[in-house]
Amino acid sequence: MFVTETAIRIHYALTDQMGVVYYGHYAQFYEIGRTEAIRQIGYTYKEIEAMGIIMPVVSINSKFLRPAKYDDMITVRTTLKTLPDHHEISFFSEIFNEAGKLLNTGEVVLYFVDAQTMRRRHIPEQLREKLAPFFEG
Amino acid sequence: MFVTETAIRIHYALTDQMGVVYYGHYAQFYEIGRTEAIRQIGYTYKEIEAMGIIMPVVSINSKFLRPAKYDDMITVRTTLKTLPDHHEISFFSEIFNEAGKLLNTGEVVLYFVDAQTMRRRHIPEQLREKLAPFFEG
Amino acid sequence: MFVTETAIRIHYALTDQMGVVYYGHYAQFYEIGRTEAIRQIGYTYKEIEAMGIIMPVVSINSKFLRPAKYDDMITVRTTLKTLPDHHEISFFSEIFNEAGKLLNTGEVVLYFVDAQTMRRRHIPEQLREKLAPFFEG
Amino acid sequence: MFVTETAIRIHYALTDQMGVVYYGHYAQFYEIGRTEAIRQIGYTYKEIEAMGIIMPVVSINSKFLRPAKYDDMITVRTTLKTLPDHHEISFFSEIFNEAGKLLNTGEVVLYFVDAQTMRRRHIPEQLREKLAPFFEG
Q: What is the CATH number of domain D2-135?
């Protein structure tokens, strides 16, 4: 299992007139979480794109338990539960407030796609090698 | 069953550097779809809020089949499959491009909540009455 | 002078916890206004990009007079005060609510840039020809 | 003069299909910059709102010199050039990339407004006292 945590400060643009974070913005938090997860294993999503691979999202499942609010410093815990071994990768996000309360969960599935042919392809071998140690033993 | 359709033009702000609509923006399309659905039965979400009722989202399930692109005129088809009879309402959205291709599906569940007490409450009776004829027979 | 008007319904995502439209979203309204202005002369911004020309924004000046609110149907009046004759084009936007009150003004200056060389270039001749009749006499 | 700096990582949601940050998102960077500036003097904008004061934006002037790009770690330098002594406060933002190149400048003017009466009011005395030492001598 591979787990990382990223902190995000809620700025005004993310709130709506209910006085909480607009539900559509959680997808950005998941994105920031998985980007920092990739960075933590010594890679960047930018480098993946530079290799001619894009990673479109194919599905999201979100649950909204408690609202995030203006100026909250939320924590996005991003978990890779299984080591990807083909064209699919699934990130599981849990979002907590400063009091440690769980606000939101989101599962985001992405494909590895060849940017030229727009066809699915396997996870890049280098990325898989960096992730493998977290799933051993 | 209650079905409405709303057209949305994709402007530049909604695209990302993959050259398609950013995955996080579909939640806005679902929102616009359900708002226009409510308007079509002779109501507005604004009036619901003025009655002291808010409708927080409790879950989303989205599938991304094909990307929406810049300047596409997409159609959001919003369906209420069952008449709500307690605190929950579920909108099912399908997004099509101009060629009639299905791009995305989303199911959004919301609760009716009393804005004062922040407790769940039944769907407002007036709203239920307006919807009932679509589910008869 | 070339003037067009476009209507935009304010959805929830555009509001913030002050209960009004977030100030950063007006730039989108200006964008929608100028895109529809270009469409009205029988062109699309998409076609301009397909010709290998991009139009980055180089400056904005905005004044916020009154707030736009949730569910308002605002009108963006977009004016081209002078016919562009080199690499620069300047759109002037005025945003009104349904009561005809002026909410916001914005002046956005863009350059015509060759997407290959990233150098400024003249306005495309076809576009200039379509605009010219509005500035005659 | 009062100067603070804040770093922001550009995530995917902020890019557009030109491959750069959408021009409308810079207003968010200015907002984050001035919020962190206020925090640095031992205050929060959230506390100002809790005192019954809101700070609507009344104007923006932005210049776009170079584009910010995906995954850039930009720095927002926020400067208060004069100590506010009535209802108006003006923040000047400069945005730099990691190479120290100036990408964007923005001047944002806000008013102090009583949230109850919606009338302009003076800067809160406590806030002015915290700022005063930076403008002495």
A: 3.10.129.10
Q: In chain B, which residues have their Cβ closer than 8 Å to the Cβ of D20?
A: 17
> Is residue A52 within 8 Å of A114, Cβ to Cβ?
yes
Given a contact cutoff of 8 angstroms between Cβ atoms, the answer to whether C88 and D90 are in contact is no
For residue D20, give the chain B residue with the closest CA.
Answer: B17
Distance CA C9, CA A72 (A): 30
User: Which contiguous run of DSSP H or E holds residue D46?
Assistant: helix D45-50
HSE of D73, CA atoms in CB hemisphere, 13 A: 6
Q: Give A26's contacts in chain C (Cβ within 8 Å).
A: none
Would you list the DSSP string of A40-57?
HTT--HHHHHHTTEE--E
For the question of residue A16 being annotated catalytic, the response is yes
Q: Kindly state the greatest CA–CA separation across chain C.
A: 49
Are A78 and A114 spatial neighbours (Cβ–Cβ below 8 Å)?
Answer: no
Instruction: Specify the 3-state DSSP secondary structure of A17.
Output: coil
pLDDT value of position D134: 94
List residues bridging with C59 in a β-sheet: C109, D63
Strands, DSSP E only, in C1-112?
2-9, 53-54, 57-64, 73-80, 88-96, 102-111
Find which of D11, D12, D17 to mutate to test the B interface (most B CBs within 10 Å of its CB): D17
Q: What is the pLDDT of residues A23-61, one digit of tens each?
A: 999 999 999 999 999 999 999 999 999 999 999 999 999
Measure CB to CB from residue A60 to each of B20, B31, B62 and give the nearest one.
B62
Q: CA-to-CA distance for B8 and B69, rounded, in angstroms? A: 12
The interface pTM score, or ipTM, of the predicted complex is: 0.95
Strand, coil or helix: D58: strand
* Residue A104 clears pLDDT 90, i.e. is over it: yes
